[in-house]
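Handout, section B. The chain below has 109 residues.
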Amino acid sequence: MSERLVDWFSVTPLSFAAICAMMVATYFCRAGGFWLMQHVPLTARVRRGLAALPGSIVMATVMPLMLRGGWPAIMGIALAFLTMLKLRNELIALLAGLAAVAAARAAGL
């Protein structure tokens, strides 16, 4: 193994401290969320909001990619969405979307 590769994988005290600090912060964020939700009454409105959360996270992730990718990305995401609605199979929907993007880019869009 080369000397540079060993140096690249070595852990310095500062990097170890940073990893530990991120671990503690992640734990407290998760535990704090569970603790906080114990004190929130689950009304119908809160339940609807929690049920809508996964879709809004997906849209917040997909929309910037779609806008930055242009027409090929829009066509790929649309075809993946329609395939998912029809077949309910994530892998086939992913492959259909990727094929649409590849075909649109090959066509020069």
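Note. The chain has four helices and no strands. Compare this with the example in section A.
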